[in-house]
């Protein structure tokens, strides 16, 4: 067996510096939002010149892509770990909410308003599909069903590209899509502060929606 190659000091320095750049990027996103992300501003914070920082990320879009990749990988790991631990559909929903509440800016980067002029590469979509695979598996094993005569079921049977190669039937597709869209609706409103001042507990509302979707 060939021994794994060790990183050179230069490679370790590059890895560390890229991680530090991403930390500053997250701080900037928390303050000004993703559309306001500026590599020159990050370079100034780090005491670097703009051209020097561009040796580590060639453009703002490359940096955004790395942040999105990190977020999707982390969420995919979270959901897959929950599924491997025996979580059912409701358990996956709770894992999603815990992950979102831990870092709302990370959540909004991948599920919030699209960044003007930015287009994610294909591999980002592939990572996101790992999350949906877990949901489809859980939805398929769930005993809960929706109305057999709902016309959207026939539509989903013919428009299933979003499910990739998963062998889910139309009922499972419908169940997973309802689960995904309704929970994200509540999460997005909660994280954006739209429940503030309404006198309700978002956690109770989320739990109620989980019960309704999995009853």
TrEMBL record:
Gene3D superfamilies registered for this protein in UniProt: Tetracycline Repressor, domain 2
What range(s) does the HTH tetR-type domain occupy?
Answer: 15-75
Q: Carries keyword Repeat?
A: no
Keyword Phosphoprotein in the entry? The reply is no
Under the heading PROSITE patterns, the entry gives: HTH_TETR_2
Residues annotated to bind DNA? 38-57
| Name of the protein | TetR/AcrR family transcriptional regulator
Q: Which organism is it from?
A: Streptomyces galbus
Give the classification, highest ranks. Bacteria, Bacillati, Actinomycetota, Actinomycetes, Kitasatosporales
